[in-house]
Every structure is written in structure tokens, then in C-alpha cells.
Amino acid sequence: MKIVFVNNQYQLGGAETVMHQLLRGAAQAGHETSLYVALGKTYPPDVIPLYPRLLSLLEHSRLNGLIKSLFPRFKWTDRNFRRLADGPADVIHVHNFHGTYATTPSMAFLAARKPVVWTFHAFWGMTGGCDHPKDCFRYQATCGSCPQVGQWPVGPVDHTREEMLRKIELLAPAPLTIVAPSRHLAAKVRESQVGKNWDIQVIPNGVDPARFGYKRKRDAAFRRSLGLDSAALVVLSVNRNFQDSQKGHGMVEEALCSASLPGVQVVLAGQNADWAAARLPATLRTVNAGYVSTQEKLAALYEAADIFLFASPAENFPCVILEAMSARCCVVATPTSGVNEQILDGRTGFMAREIEGKALGEVLQGTVARPDEVAAAGVAAREQVEKEFSEQVMVDRHLALYERVVEKARDVRRPH
Hints:
Elements (H helix, E strand, L loop, with lengths): L1 E6 L6 H15 L3 E6 L9 E3 L3 H7 L4 H7 L2 H11 L7 E4 L9 H8 L4 E4 L40 H11 L5 E5 L2 H9 L7 E4 L17 H6 L7 E9 L7 H10 L5 E8 L1 H6 L6 E6 L4 H10 L2 E4 L8 H8 L3 E4 L15 E3 L5 H12 L2 H18 L2 H23 L3
Parallel strand pairs: 1-2, 1-4, 2-3, 4-5, 5-6, 6-7, 8-9, 8-11, 9-10, 11-12, 12-13
Helix pairs in contact: 1-15, 4-5, 9-13
């Protein structure tokens, strides 16, 4: 098969991680693959940008205003996205898509001409514009009066009703195959006016357990090399940006401030970790790991940690939890939808009773008091990843899906 992958960015977060796993896995299985990326300043040689390389570079220079005026990025990316319909691809797999590099009509245009698989890494495709409806049910009708106006990706003006009506008109009848990493997301899509008739497949995200070690977890020299206390119980919190209110650090902070954590060392890894560390009690032993630029360094932090602390008001199926589980970390988390499909409460980790900081602090305090259970949960977490959430399982399920949608498209085109 000739498989084309399309995404916003080449490298950023969970969506990009999954995209690269599938790209690599499909190529290793003998399929012809290519990757198209919409946004960026520079791109690796094997990436095909939807916006020319030279213009991408100049757009990030002093000529920014002139380039944006003469060569608007969106016009190029939208046009080139549509042109994929004329290419040789047997199937096109679209990842992050928020209408930022191609229009909703262009997605419908492409789906009418090529088999399109669209992974929902969030909920934008079936709402009027938000990435997660949380407790709002307006997506079951036609949106409007959006409670998330002012937040990304909705923006400062409420266009959610117009956007929802556009999606109902153009995307609802499109022959799209949707991949939902969680059962929770799949259920939401089926409840929506846009996605109720789509072919929706649940394929959980996966990780390669071989990339994450655990044998040095209690190795004193290894821990010291990372600036950690060899005797402490290490609690790790990872956040792309600790100051982003949507990433849940407020609950983590409340948990750490409210819990009694003797003998515990807390490690903060991510952008603005210094800001987050300064807000914690001086009595709490905190290590600021800062922004982690390599997967190897992040894997080392997982390996050194005993507990992975996670909080989020809304999620899909976060890869970061699977990575921590692979390194035999006991996960302590809020019972956020999607997350509760990853963690077996009391076996591979421990869940707070509600999505709230003090509740998270209570379960964390109880967990650190039972180090034997922490170690046992870490072992069980690794076993669960190997059996259910491995990268190979995820890749195999996607390859089987590609073959099915390609064959279905051929059946439609065959004369009867």
C-alpha cells in the first residue's frame, strides 16, 4: 500500500508521537509511506511540507510581514492538501486537524476521492470548535453560546454554531473512517450530529516498552547522576508547559501542597518547571528538571521515578501515562475520561475519587505510605502495557484498518 500521513507539526506532542510510530511501523512492514506537514520553520529532508521550504524559512525571519502578505500560508497548505486527492496514495491518514491548514470543505473534498482515516487526538472534528466538550452537551445539537470562547482553539469570537452547521453539512455525509484512541472519545463522536454515521474504530495509543527501562529504578549511582536522592521515594510530574491552565498542573500543585509527603522527592519536568517549583512549599524536596529536550532524558526520569503524578481536566488517551507505565511507575492520577481506560485502579495505579486537587493529594499521601504496593503496581503497569498498549499492537491494528478501508473503496468503484 501507498500510505500518506498528514499532520500539523512534525514534532510536538502525543499526536506527533503516534504519527511517527505508524509511519515507522508501516514502512517496516513493507509499505510505501510519505509524510506531509503543514506548519514549521524547517523540515527534515524526508518530510513533504504543504508550504514551500523557502517560504517557511522566510516567514520566520524579518520578512515575516511581507511573506504573510504576498504568500499566505493557509492558501498554500489548503490547496496542497486538496491536491492529495490526485496523488497515488491508496489511503490518507490525517492526524491533528483543526481547520488551521485546510478547510472543512477541503476535508470533505479529499474524503470523497480517497480513502481517508482521521485520528481524533481530541474532539474538534465533532464539535463546533472546542478540543474537548468537558461537561457541555451542545455538540449533540448545533453548538452556539460556547462556554470556551476565548480559549484555544475556539478563539475570541463565538463561531461555533456556524462551524457545527458546516460540519453537519459537509463532513457528516463524508465516507470518513475515524480512529478514536479511547472508548470515551468514540462514544462522544457517536453522540454528535457530525459523527453519528461515521465508521468509528477504537484503537488505543501504544508505546514501545523496549524504549523504557526499569532495572535501575533503585540504583543509587543512577539516581545521583540525575540529581536525585538515592533513598527517597521519587514522584515525577511531566508537563509540556506548567503554566498552561489546560494541562492540569493547578491540581498537581494543590495535591502536593495539601498532602503530607515525608521522605518524598518531587521531580518537575517541562517548560516553566522553575515557575512551578517556586510555588510549592519550601519543606517539599523539589527537583527542577526543566524542559526535557530528548526522549532519552525523559526515559531516564521515568526509570528513576517510583510514582508518576498526573492530573488533567479533560483527556483522550495520553501517551505520557503509557510511557510512565512502561518504566514501571505507579501512576497516581485524576479519574479523567480516557485515563481511567489506561489505569486499573488499585492494581496498576491509584485514582483519586474525583477530578480535583485535594482528592488527588489524598490518594497520593495514602500511596506513598505503602511503598510495597507502589512497587507492585509498577510491575503490573509494565505488564499491562506489554499485553494491551504496545506499539506493535497499535501498528498492526492500523495496518489491518488501512487494508479494510482500501478494499472497501475498491468495492465501491468496481462496476456491478
